[in-house]
Amino acid sequence: MIDKLEKMTKEWAKVNNIENYKSFNYINNIKTTEIKTTEEKTDDQDYIKVEAYALTWGSKTNLDRGGDYISQDAFDEDLKDRGQMPMLFNHDNNTKSLGGYWDKFEKDDVGIKFSGKLYNTVATKHEFDMVKNGSLNTLSIGGAWEYEYEKDGNKIIKGSLFEASLVPIPMNPDAQVVSLSEPKSMNDREVKHSDLNELILDSAKDEDKTNEVDDSDVEESNQKLITVESLARNLLKRRMIGD
């Protein structure tokens, strides 16, 4: 297959009076590398998108297990223009217990819905599997609160959230995961390079046909190789700048 493509490349270069041309093999090497990085997906690169009510509104008649409830404006200031927040397990401030991050916070009549990504790493594989199969589906928040103490319960009137953890036994039983995406891979870059791979495979699909190269073969290979060379250069440029 490569010999035929090399032959077509030489004919193309000859027709266009190009002495120093780049072998098709260097493009094939790029293709091979991309297939390895996009096809060989490992578990530690998986993630799932999580949506959960990390906190819900309560009242004097609907307290959490610690006797607290949260005012609906308690975190308005804290979550305004908030960036990423750590997604921990069991409030353990340790990198091995860092499952991912929360980066979206939506307030509604129920509470505040957190959205983020949970990654499957060597350190968090057990918890990742527990969340994925639904065994671990409740949450607890960590931070600093300002209370208004009342006879019938402690009202949190203002707070600063440090993190939101996935826990087996929450202080608030209503703080639960509401949706999970299907596991995804961080190596979804194959879509970006599909045109390059398709052109390479398409150029070689008639391998079993005659190896003779006529004018139409040269003209077709000319157009394909120009396109492939352009795609390859753009691909290498993106890889050099970290795309």
Summarize the structure in words.
- The protein is of the alpha+beta class.
- The chain has 2 domains: 2-40 and 188-240, no CATH class; 43-185, Herpesvirus/Caudovirus protease domain (Serine Protease, Human Cytomegalovirus Protease, Chain A), CATH 3.20.16.10.
- 33% of the residues lie in helices and 30% in strands.
- The chain has helices at 2-15, 24-39, 76-79, 125-132, 194-204, 215-240, and strands at residues 46-56, 68-70, 85-89, 98-107, 111-119, 138-150, 153-167, 177-180, 184-185.
- Strands 1, 2, 3, 4, 5, 6, 7, 8 and 9 form a 9-stranded mixed beta sheet that branches.
- Helix 5 (194-204) runs antiparallel to helix 6 (215-240).
- The protein is elongated and about 90 Å long.
- The protein starts with a helix and ends with a helix.
- Residues 21-44 and 189-196 have low confidence and may be disordered.
CATH topology name of the largest domain: Serine Protease, Human Cytomegalovirus Protease, Chain A
Briefly note the structural class of the backbone: alpha+beta
- The tally of strands reads 9
CATH architecture of the largest domain: Alpha-Beta Barrel
Estimate the global geometry from the Cα principal axes.
elongated
Strand percentage lies at 25-35%
CATH class of the largest domain: Alpha Beta
